[in-house]
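Quick one before lunch.
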Amino acid sequence: MTVRLRQAGTPDLDNLYRLEQVAFTGDRFSRRQLWHLLNRAHAVTLVAEDAGTAGAPSQLLGYGTLLFRRGSRRARLYSFCVHPGARGSGLGRRLIEALEQLARSRGVERLGLEVRADNRVALGLYRRLGFRLQGWLEDYYEDGCAGWQMVKELAPSVEAAEERAG
Ligand SMILES: CC(C)(COP(=O)(O)OP(=O)(O)OC[C@H]1O[C@@H](n2cnc3c(N)ncnc32)[C@H](O)[C@@H]1OP(=O)(O)O)[C@@H](O)C(=O)NCCC(=O)NCCS
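Model of the coenzyme A complex:
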């Protein structure tokens, strides 16, 4: 299987919505919320897509969305998942690394996220990628589960450093 990453746009809405339904067990985004993310000026979504074989439709295997803030060197990993059938083969790590790279190229120095306290796989992945625990969020999710706030300092990319140097 050849998996490629690319930036998502409005034509991906239906497939993204289907992926959201199977990848999360709760706190899912509605179609309307996903549409908003795809069309929001300060959000970028990367999708992982199985390029498929000739003639077969491509399939979305994962996505991650970053939110930026104007005039800020901080960004937030707002949503992130991999299709259950594609988990455990490094795609989650690949997506996060690509999102980090994208954030760095835009001059972001600090990437934050929130994760369910009972989500061992995601917590382990973030920790191994260098995110550290920053804060405890009591009763944060719709079922009452607590969350962790995590953060990672990003090294400036060559492009961003050059741009800043003028
Ligand atoms: C979290 C998630 C995105 C990880 O995706 P993935 O493609 O399986 O991730 P990877 O294959 O890159 O694996 C990441 C790490 O977790 C480990 N891992 C994966 N599945 C695991 C499992 N079921 N149990 C234990 N460890 C597991 C891998 O060994 C890997 O470890 P490494 O970094 O040392 O190599 C995926 O499980 C998911 O979509 N979960 C539901 C949505 C979700 O929780 N999103 C995050 C919200 S904050």
